[in-house]
Records
---
Amino acid sequence: MTVRTTLAPAAGMGWATQVTLFIAVLFLVCAWAIDLTPAALANLPRQMATVLSFFYPADLNYGATRVWPALLESIQIAWMGTIIAAMLSLPLALLGARTLFPRIARLVKLISATARAFPEILLAIYFVPIVGLGAFAGALAIGISSVGMLTKLGSEVVESIDMGPVEAVQAAGGSRLLALRYAVVPQVLPEIVAHWLFRFELNIRASAVLGVVGAGGVGGVLLNTLRYRHFEKAAAVLLLTILVVLIIDMVSGAIRRRLLR
Amino acid sequence: MTDKAAIRFQGARVVYPNGAVGLAGVDLDIKPGEFVVVVGSSGAGKSTLLRSVNGLTPLTSGSITVGGQPVPKKEGRELRRLRAGVGMIFQDFRITRRLSVMTNVLVGRVAHVPGWRAMLNLWPAADREIAFRALERVSIADKAWVRAGDLSGGQQQRVGIARALAQEPAIILADEPVASLDPVTTHQIMRDLVRINQELGITTLVNLHFLDLARRYGQRIIGLKAGELVYDGTADSVTQADFKNIYGRDPDAGDLLDESEAS
Amino acid sequence: MNEASRAAPGRPLRPARNWTLIIAAVGAVSLMTWWSARGIGFSLVELACNLPGGRRLLVESWPPDWSFFPRLLGPLLETLQIAVVGTVIGGILAIPIAVLAARNLTPGFLVWFVDRNFMNILRTLPDLFWAMLFAAAVGFGPIAGALALTVFTIAVISKLWSESLEAIDMAVPEAVRAAGGSWLAMLQFGAIPQALPHYVSYALYAFELNVRASMILGLVGAGGIGMVLETQRSTFEYPRVTLIVLSVLVLVLIIEKISESIRRRLV
């Protein structure tokens, strides 16, 4: 991209050039620090090609016997985590809306920001010793870390609604709870359910990696096949994962579009 | 019924947190069954006057009684009981667009049925009958099961009126009910309000911006200026000079519905 | 159920609900939940029984082993280096991929179709899968991590930015074309400048995600602080694990604050 220096060509570089230069220097320093030299970079395509050739043919038998059950477990983890998060975040999203509960909202937002800061895999590191190796720890980790994000998104949806009907229910003598029931929830539910579904799509990917720390699912299988250099088996893991995630994304995306129409 | 429908303002004063004065000490008596139109330029305190009757805007000092009972200043059971008998109609309709017309009207029954029934959307047959009659009174019973957001503006305002009627109220407060409607619909809605007042004897307070509408539909006209009561008389006796006094200037075409329609 | 509506003629009957859809939806959700709960051994009883053990773990993990901190500085720095390298390479490679995937700019349907699907497939695999793959291909260490984040960055930026490119005003690009400009000239002078602020914003967002991701890449041997975390975790040195988790969180929050303030100034 050309940088226009029409105003003061003699004065030197524009700020865009300076930033680009800064990033370039930073990049070179970092690349040098991790030994990513031009030689290593040049060697890369050949290395990748060699390894990739080992991936063919995929061991479909292994796929059916070992990968498929692990993938199903990943889906179960993601689903349970999403359900836990959805149930916990719905009331929290209402309580976290500034427009409805100005005093409680700040506290709820603080809690959700904290829950959001932990990547699920770090939570899983703590849950595994607590509830034992396996999928249950994974579901809890996914659930807790999703609560934060879903609460935040839900509160934003609630804050964006038309508050008129809320006042109308109260003007008719309805309690605050009834105002939530008839004026808030009907306005926000489709968007909030769409966020749940989107989170489920993300959680499928998150649950797939949890196996790395022993929290169940397909990640552990991939790690083992690669560790013992069984590339045809790893190929089966990748193929099946891509396929299943694509299908789930498609179905969930179609439902989301219908909800929001 | 008659007693419950009387409203009395005594030294009613509202000062907003930002220092703006909504009502500057209003004394006013409204008799049961009256049809009162409140006029004044924007910011004169028309909305504040109406909203203080059902406690949506609490008084800073003074008092308002509805049917002899003082309006509570805090949210709670007492205030909800009072609001159950006071229907309110809003400029922007304030219906829940994603719910059916019927459910929106049943919201008018929330304070008349047990809380758990209202919560679970399990309305007694008698209350559904009341809601249907309210819809019939504004001639949109045929739209009962349509999604409220799919209706035209005039129809949505009728849903708002039906919701107020479903409360079987002694009083109706209509805050600029026609300000977002076209002229033809405006006259229909105003006629509906007058007819409801006559047929059911519900005390009605309507805020209006347009002078010709006020004169045409009002029985009694109340003029507000900077939160003070500056005019109180019958619609027949109100003069051009009175309007000038209320608005602080000569009324122009923008203050007349049918004129602004023509221009 | 509808005595009221039957009583008076002229009232519309409440339309029958779409019970098939309702039952199908409720049934599917219940079935999924039951199947999942059973499959993963979800049980509140187990959770309650294990809580004492959990409390012991939490007690053991606190206070963090502060004396370990000096040994974290190197790996933390390496983590940031991985994130920078991955973001820069990925950010550059994402540009052509996003342009070809934008419906209004792509030179042909076939290119668009192939590129779009390539983009979607990149997005299906989580960051740690790429890290495992590259660790297997080029050996354990930070280069594998940087390559994994390169792919991850391409996936994030190209998807978001192609949507921004599709939303641009086409008047200028078409004018460049009409004046005889080439496809590249159209991009350079007509299309890309309009969506440039979005690109910078998404690149910063990708950098935030990459800093987060780079912390855990080491769990599968792809360099950075995660490798230290993995060794301490597998020997149950929880006071050290806590220290690592805390320093990761603090670093992530600092980077996010900086990036957020830059993004706010841009928009």
---
Amino acid sequence: MIDSILKSIKKIPAFPATIQRVTSLLRNDDYSVTDVVNVIKYDQSIAANILKISNSAYFGVHQKIMTIHDAVVYLGQQQLVRAVQMAGVSKFYKKSGKGYVAQSRDLWEHSVAVALMSQILSRRIQGKEDSVLYTSALLHDIGKVIMGEYVYESFQQIFNQVKTKQCSFLEAEEEVIGINHAELGGRIAAHWNFPIEIKDAIAYHHRPDLLKKEDKTNAWLVYLSDQACLMFGIDGGVDGLAYKGLEEVMHFFDLKAVDLEKSFILLLDELEKAKDVIQII
Amino acid sequence: MSEIIVGISDLKVSSNPDDVVITYALGSCICVAVYDPKVRVGGLLHFMLPDSTLDVNKAKENPSMFADTGIPLLFKSCYMFGAEKKRMVVKVAGGASILDDTNYFRIGQKNITAMRKIFWRNNVLIDNEDTGKNCNRTVRLELKSGRCLIKSSDGTVKEL
């Protein structure tokens, strides 16, 4: 089974070159609006998604955005990176119906919620938003897109493991299928040539305690955002809340339970604003 | 039949026997389902957090967010349709936790405790419940019969 899974990674379409190019243009503070517009407008499916996303209340632009040029001008550097990432990533979640979730939109909604939560927590903990964290959060469950089919076939076995051994869904995946969705996601990120920081945050999003790196902030933040969304009820599917709680996370960030409760309230507001974003798939 | 959807931090009450009130995605949040069989009035509350002192302004704006402000509002909303406290059947679901919950973020447990305290103080008995564990739940309340169905993320469906 594991061989066929690893082969599927090679078959997954390349991460859209448009997204990579726009992101790298936007890394430069003196980016030219014309250059950015020119890259986006030749990729029709991405351009259409960017237009839809830009008009969502989440980005808070009051004018109606009619053209890609409007989007680039009104959204500005940081927000544009996000809209572009969302437009690109959503593509991969379109066909994730089987296995974990009843409909592909559920996994997309979970991914967007975790991305929003990652920024809420980053503002509270680090005093700023963080685009690398945002991308990691948006992609954290990308492994499920491939794993879904295998989980679908072995669901009963995985589920029995969780029940009888009282283990997490992650451990059961490993036992039954030979790899877990987080590690698989890390391999997909590597296949797409994402920076190592993003790859690690995806691969260790359920076990940041096992990551052997000096700076584990991103992995812990993705972990915490994901856990919070599971509790909030926006989960990744059949796995529900069957994941390990790591108490260290609270000490790592010096957080109290009320801090997280307050973040729930903020998430509820932001999700309301991001409704249109969730509906693009 | 029309379906009335209850969002997160939201409550809906109906007296139309053709309605089915539904709430999706209960993780650590809790759904309180109430029903008066005599007048066939009932509804669902989907609250998110235990205690409104966390954010008093939010609680004023949206009482359904918290157990202590949402539960009284659910009952009062049913009384407006002719329901009476003594006849109300009360069922609850949700309050799930992640595994090995080493006290670090027991929002599910805190929600369950807060809800029990409120019912205790107000002399309300819980007729049936499906709480805790680590699954996500969906609740359906049929106004015609008062039947309350719980669908869990692991695929099982049961009647409370």
